[in-house]
Design brief:
2 copies of one chain form a homodimer. Chain A is α+β, with helices and mostly antiparallel strands. Helix content of chain A is 41%, strand content 30%. In chain A, helix 1 runs antiparallel to helix 3.
């Protein structure tokens, strides 16, 4: 299964999902799939890059080890960020009342699938 | 039920929990309860303050509305941050393999309990 198919699988497997992307730690989008045309995953990815670096700093300060996942729930979106390699992470955007557990599971599975291609 | 009892309830209700605190948006700890003596919730709280502000900036950039919750899973800790009012948030630290769903539920409930006292 290639990278694009892995992303499509996640979006297809979760009705309340709006978009998914693979982002580099430089904030540049590698690949995306979305259902909502107006969702700007490039801007989101660049912003999340900064968030992941802040979280790494928090984790460092308490000896928590490397960050694996950050789930942010806001009023209008839920964003699941998952680190795939040292250089890349994936982000999945779902409806705030969507099935968060399934989203996390599908993203973890997709992360394992795309890791070898990155 | 007072603030201290609400925090004790969460820690008592989740075996894999290590500590809980109420933190101001200025990074200052208001109240804490912990099982692990070496867990430095004051430092963690101050760092999380910065993370919450970064997440607010991310949410602002995509029109996501206010941040409600951030769940960060690292190798050695899982940290659940929940906004209680504009001025305060709560943080719960649990084992990375702990029951995340129950932690989120207990923290949400405690947030409702302490809100009137803040």
């Amino acid at each position: 299964m290639n990278m694009t198919d892995s992303l499509r699988d996640v979006i297809g497997g979760l009705e309340e999902s709006w978009g998914i992307a693979i982002i580099g730690m430089d904030g540049i989008l590698v690949e995306e799939q979305k259902k909502q045309g107006e969702l700007d995953l490039q801007t989101l990815g660049a912003e999340l890059c900064g968030l992941l670096k802040s979280a790494d700093s928090v984790a460092g300060s308490i000896g928590a080890g490397g960050i694996i996942e950050i789930v942010t729930t806001a009023e209008n979106y839920c964003v699941i960020l998952r680190r795939v390699t040292d250089e890349y992470f994936m982000v999945l955007v779902i409806h705030p009342d969507g099935n968060l557990g399934k989203g996390r599971y599908l993203l973890r599975r997709a992360g394992s699938q795309v890791r070898s291609e990155l």
